Amino acid sequence: MTETLSGGETVVFWVLGPIALAGALGMVLSRNAIHSALWLVNTMLALGVFYVVQEAPFLGAVQIIVYTGAIMILFLFVLMLVGRDSSDSVVETLRGQRVAAIVLGLGFAALVGAGIARATQELTATGLDAVQGEQGNIAAIAESLFTDYLLAFEVTSALLITAAVGAMVLAHIEREPGSRQTQKELSRARFLTSEKPQTLPGPGVFARANSVAVPAILPDGTPSEASLATGIEPETPDQMPRPTGREQLGTPDAALGTLDPAPGGPAAGEWSTDR
Amino acid sequence: MTLTYYLVLAAILFTIGAVGVLVRRNAIVVFMCVELMLNSVNLTLVTFARATGTIDGQIMAFFVMVVAAAEVVVGLAIIMSIYRTRRSASVDDANLLKY
Amino acid sequence: MSEVLPAEGLLGASWLLIALPLAGAAVLLLGGRRTDRWGHLLGTATVVAAFVLALLCTFQLAGLEERSADVDLFTFISTGDLDVRAGLLFDPLSAIFALLITGVGSLIHVYSIGYMAHDPARRRFFAYLNLFVAAMLLLVLGNSFVALYVGWEGVGLASYLLIAFWYTRPAAATAAKKAFIMNRVGDVGLALAIFLMFAQLGTTSYAGVFGGVGTLAGGTITAIGLLLLLGACGKSGQFPLQAWLPDAMEGPTPVSALIHAATMVTAGVYLIARSAPIYDLTETARTVVMAIGALTLLIGAIAGCAYDDIKKVLAYSTVSQIGYMFLAVGLGPAGYVAGLAHLLAHGFFKAGLFLGAGSVMHAMNDSVDMRRFGGLWKKLPVTFVTFGLGYLALIGFPFLSGYFTKDAIIEATFDRDDWLGWTTGGIAVLAAGLTAFYMTRLMLMTFFGRARWEEGVHPHESPSVMTAPMVVLAVGSVFSGALLVSIFPLSDWLEPVFGEPEEAAHVIAPATIGIALTVIMLLGVLAAWLFVGRREVPVTAPVRVSPVTRAARNALYADTINESLFMRPGQWLTRALVWVDNRGVDGAVNGLAATLGGSSSRLGRAQTGFVRTYALGMLGGAVLVAGALLAVTAG
């Protein structure tokens, strides 16, 4: 066919190519794993469009449905289960790891890119019209898949069922029969052993805001770390009137509180944010 | 514009994925980077299918997707079970097998 | 040497001679404590049966025209050019040895039943004795030097086991080790001689070696002869390897009687007599044999004069008497028969003397110190009489066995009529006087004089199971000499082996020598009476003595010489080698190991356990591969 591709494709490439790259970089660079996942979805969608453009509409659809739809949702589910922890920190603990990785990555990209550029300078797009003919892309894939690649296809089905069973085995928690505690036992255990038998304070209670990132203010005016979900970076609560102890109230006017920090308690905003 | 652009883009995406594997510590993010590398390979396969005029490249990409799906399921289950026992999803925390 | 014929009839079963005691040893050793009650009876029975069989075989042999029987058994070793057939040679020479071993062995087995009656390990003792008899019979009956060597090592092993029979005594364990190691020195000589025979002649059988030895160069024959002599010296306690034999008296007395007096120590004489066709061809080796014999008989006689230990005196006497035998066989054809006759007579009277000594020790609570004996002739009449007859036979009292056999040796020595003959003959005559001196001293200190017993010792005569063998041996001591020299001449019996005895031209008339020896003997006895019998014997040995006595007490410093010549340099060499090994070899090896270990542990640091580090390595590898591919395609 031709060495140069059509103008429309060029436009698509130059629009979506940077988007795909930005998605990839964003995934690696963003601190929050959920952001990473969303950046990856971005890249995958761009790649799906590339597939469609490159005469692979079936793969493009599968990319969008299976990858960005199913697999990334699975990632997000696991992220929800695991939550965020110190692994999200962007501080590098291995000495020289980041520098070495970047240097080697640049070297690799340069070498492979140069190799590809050298080898495929005159690469012509033959196109799939001859192969697909009248029947179209899906029928062509199906024909090849169920004839030449039938064995691989069947083996893949075995792989999938094995993976499903394996995931169940790995995720399953074995409990001894009868070891499940009743609600009564659970509450008794909590009251006997725990220093804090009541429920944890919800975020935002007595705070100025209702955001999950705002810690609850305890009756003595200190923010409660226990009210925050893991992985949430707390915001500094605004200065606000805080209730004080009954004995300190004195007059009813005084019961309304002041803007001064509670005597003896830590000043607002003093509590450590780096946990 | 030629097909080479697609290939170079795929190489850059692959490299970014590889670097991500090296610098990120969250096992799930590392896993995502692996997925990105697989995707870039898929792009290469599709591009070469178009260049050579055969459908086999697309078949390969299809199989890669299927295998990736299976791998994600098992891999995430492993991450889950490690997290349950060690309370950590960091790949650096699982470092007992050493000198 | 006459043609050997395949054995027929009873002679074909002569392998049973070896098999019987061997089976006895096997049963006793493997049977363990189950055989404790009847083990000694079985051990004695096998040896007695072997003696009967040996007698029958000898009678049949006497009837054969060729008087030699070859019993081919099986292929022992077959490798390359070496093809050793295990076989037995029953000829007059092995017959007299088989009779001596089984005969004296039977008597000593019977004696041991009584002597070892109270020893908890009596079964083990009989097992070892049987093992010894089997090995000794293999030594004398084998038809090749390899078979002889197997028996040679077997008796060495049995000797070691029996010397160390009371292995809880440090002295016994040390003596056994000494005997074993000094025997090894001799055994190396024997082994080298056998190698030399195989290398030069391609065979080790008696027939092959003696048939082909004439074709060898004179130097080779002399080398073989000297190496065989080294082996013989080791086994027979001859100079310079004589020091182990007196120490071997740490073993039970029946062992001293059987192994270290009558049989095993005469194996060296047997070896030289058996190798007569080799020695006949080498004058040099025979001269050395004679010189060693003469030197040893003098050393033994001098050392025997100084010791107070009854068994040690007898041991040095054995050394001395075997020296006479070496002197005789060194003479060549003229002396073989005389030497063997003395060997047989010595087997009788020395075994009897040892058994008598054992009986005395039995009576004296196992004491061996003659200074604490005395006046025992009344308490131990049977022992006294039998011991006395053995004594008279040993010192050459006229018409007892020693008189005939020793006279014959001295006669034959003088008959050489050259400087060597005169010198060695003179030494032999002098030693005969010394023999009379130290044996008389032994008799006087043990049986006569005042009783110097320790507290609580109540001498009593031994049971008849012990005295009966002593009586038999005493009878043998009295008559064997006359029997072997005059009535049934040994020279006729051994004629198929050593050839027709030639009528020697006597330089000195035999009667003159007989009278002279008797006079010398009487002088020795008289000297002993003057020095020992006349005076009171001190209970402890005098300390202020002449240098001669001191030297004699130290066995002429044989141990000191051995130690300073061989042991000390050996120790220095060992220490030097240990030092080189520790510092040099070990240093190099350990250094290499430490280097490797250190670098390994340093390299192991690369295994940080961080997956990302490993992944970095993988990416680095991928970069290298990509670069290499590019370089190749671009280039």
From TrEMBL, chain A:
Pfam (any one): Oxidored_q3
Compartmental location: Cell membrane
GO cellular component term of the entry, any: plasma membrane
Major location category of this protein: membrane
Catalytic activity of the protein: a quinone + NADH + 5 H(+)(in) = a quinol + NAD(+) + 4 H(+)(out)
Protein EC: 7.1.1.-
Top-level taxon of the source organism: Bacteria
Top-level EC class: translocase
Region (Disordered): 177-204, 217-275
Topological type in the membrane: Multi-pass membrane protein
Gene Ontology MF terms: NADH dehydrogenase (ubiquinone) activity; quinone binding
PANTHER family reported for this sequence: NADH-QUINONE OXIDOREDUCTASE SUBUNIT J (PTHR33269:SF19), NADH-UBIQUINONE OXIDOREDUCTASE CHAIN 6 (PTHR33269)
Entry's family note: Belongs to the complex I subunit 6 family.
Known function: NDH-1 shuttles electrons from NADH, via FMN and iron-sulfur (Fe-S) centers, to quinones in the respiratory chain. Couples the redox reaction to proton translocation (for every two electrons transferred, four hydrogen ions are translocated across the cytoplasmic membrane), and thus conserves the redox energy in a proton gradient.
Protein name: NADH-quinone oxidoreductase subunit J
Source organism (scientific name): Blastococcus haudaquaticus
TrEMBL record, chain B:
Subcellular location: Cell membrane; Membrane
Gene3D superfamilies on file: 1.10.287.3510
Membrane topology: Multi-pass membrane protein
Membrane-crossing segments per the record: 6-23, 28-49, 61-83
Primary location recorded for the protein, binned into one broad class: membrane
A GO BP annotation: ATP synthesis coupled electron transport
GO cellular component, one term: plasma membrane
Pfam (any one): Oxidored_q2
Domain of life: Bacteria
Catalytic activity: a quinone + NADH + 5 H(+)(in) = a quinol + NAD(+) + 4 H(+)(out)
Assigned keywords, A-Z: Cell membrane, Membrane, NAD, Quinone, Translocase, Transmembrane, Transmembrane helix, Transport
Assembly behavior: NDH-1 is composed of 14 different subunits. Subunits NuoA, H, J, K, L, M, N constitute the membrane sector of the complex.
PANTHER family on file: NADH DEHYDROGENASE SUBUNIT 4L-RELATED, NADH-UBIQUINONE OXIDOREDUCTASE SUBUNIT ND4L
HAMAP family linked to this entry: NDH1_NuoK (MF_01456)
UniProt protein name: NADH-quinone oxidoreductase subunit K
Primary gene name: nuoK
From TrEMBL, chain C:
The protein, known as: NADH dehydrogenase subunit L
GO process terms (BP): ATP synthesis coupled electron transport; electron transport coupled proton transport
Localization terms from the record: Endomembrane system; Membrane
Annotated ranges, domain NADH-Ubiquinone oxidoreductase (complex I) chain 5 N-terminal: 76-126
UniProt cross-references to NCBIfam families, sorted A to Z: NDH_I_L, PRK06590.1
Keywords: Membrane, Transmembrane, Transmembrane helix
TM ranges: 12-30, 42-62, 93-113, 125-142, 188-207, 213-234, 255-273, 285-306, 313-334, 380-399, 419-444, 465-488, 508-532, 614-634
InterPro entries per the UniProt record, alphabetical: NADHpl_OxRdtase_5_subgr, ND/Mrp_TM, NU5C-like, Proton_antipo_N
MF terms in GO: NADH dehydrogenase (ubiquinone) activity; NADH dehydrogenase activity
Gene source species: Blastococcus haudaquaticus
Domain NADH:quinone oxidoreductase/Mrp antiporter transmembrane: 143-428
GO cellular component: endomembrane system; membrane
